[in-house]
Amino acid sequence: MNILCVIDTLGAGGAQRQIVELAKGFVRRGHDVEFLTYYPIPFFNSVLESEGIHIFCIEESNYLMRLLKMRRFIRGRKYDAVLSFLEGANFICQVAGFPTRKWKLVVGERSANPEILKSLKLIVFRWFHFFADYIVANSNANMKYVKAVNPMLANEKCQVVYNIVDFDEFKPLEILRQTGEDKFHLVIPARIRPEKNITGLIQALLLLSNEERQKLQVDWYGKYEKEELNNPLLKESLELIQSKGLDKVITFFEATLDIKSIIQYSDAVGLFSTFEGFPNAICEAMACAKPVVCSKVSDMDFFLSHEPHLLCDPYNPTSIKDSLSYLINMDQKSLKHLGIANRNIALREFEKESIVSRYLDLLGVENN
């Protein structure tokens, strides 16, 4: 079967990681897969090319011309199914189906952004979901927003499928601490964006005692080459960190394809976002049997309810501070037991092959 995957860019984002993993799964089931994007950011290109997946990019700054060119591309090739992620790509693929189409269309919702409830543009995008065969969200929280703005969507068209984790890749190592390090090593794999709440984290770090700050090393992996060099938020954050004397506590690093090793050699993984669809970083950390500290976003309060002290309010720096303090003062035995509990939840909920099968079923292609 011929499957087209459509997304805005192949940059270092969570939605991009997930659609790339799905595409790899489709190829390994014997299907032919191609990618279509409209921004030429090649972070995941090498991963797809290594699987023999062709990538097409239609660069067009004019929105109408972009829509028409991508519609012409999709309709001009003989696809059996199309899978799109993110609202812009979803809209384009739904319009490409007018007036009729022969391919199955599944669109992926990947963000529980509260703006969905207020923005006319974002609301209109969701009303075009009538023209998809299925709408898949990666959390119940995300799907609630979609159905709130388009309550007429049929329940059977709305599916919740959690994120993929490759357990052959993301697995525990028999190590809790960085070799030779006394500090607690917290990793944050996230882009440098306002919703990732860098400011809230910095304020929380300032509320920790001096002794606790000296115990902690935060490594934030989320810069992306030239795209981030002129990022005002990153510049402001670095200036604030320097002025508050936190430069020995938190460090920013480039985004990396080898985030697995970064997670495996950490003590814990954190995410303090104000909203998320469903965070890859938390899924992958759980698969590696790592403790996680996370804001109460998406469905995290359900998945991490076994350790409520590590769930925090992203809008309250004191709440973030309390969770950080609790984490870095846990003993080694408790950290290990918490990691094992997280791993068991991940194995039950994020298994790759079953999720690939779910998508293939929805796409209506042969599920080998």
Helix-strand string: EHEHEHEHEHEHEEHHEHHEHEHEHEHHH
Main sheet: strand order: 3-2-1-4-5-6-7
The tally of beta strands, per DSSP, is 13
Instruction: Name the average pLDDT.
Output: 93
Helix count from the secondary structure assignment: 16
Question: Beta fraction of the residues?
Answer: 15-25%
CATH topology of the largest domain: Rossmann fold
Kindly, what is the distance between the CA atoms of the first and last residues, rounded to a whole number of angstroms? Answer: 11 Å
The CATH architecture of the largest domain comes to 3-Layer(aba) Sandwich
What helical percentage do the residues reach? 40-55%
CATH class of the largest domain: Alpha Beta
Q: Your description of this structure?
A:
It is globular, with a radius of gyration of 21 Å. The protein has 368 residues and is α/β, with parallel strands linked by helices. The chain is built from 16 helices and 13 strands. It folds into two domains: 2-164 and 351-363, Glycogen Phosphorylase B (Rossmann fold), CATH 3.40.50; 184-349, 3-Layer(aba) Sandwich (Rossmann fold), CATH 3.40.50. The protein has a seven-stranded parallel β-sheet with strand order 3-2-1-4-5-6-7, sandwiched between helices. Strands 10-9-8-11-12-13 form a six-stranded parallel β-sheet, with helices on both faces. 42% of the residues lie in helices and 17% in strands. Helix 7 packs across helix 14 (317-328) and helix 12 (280-287) crosses helix 15.
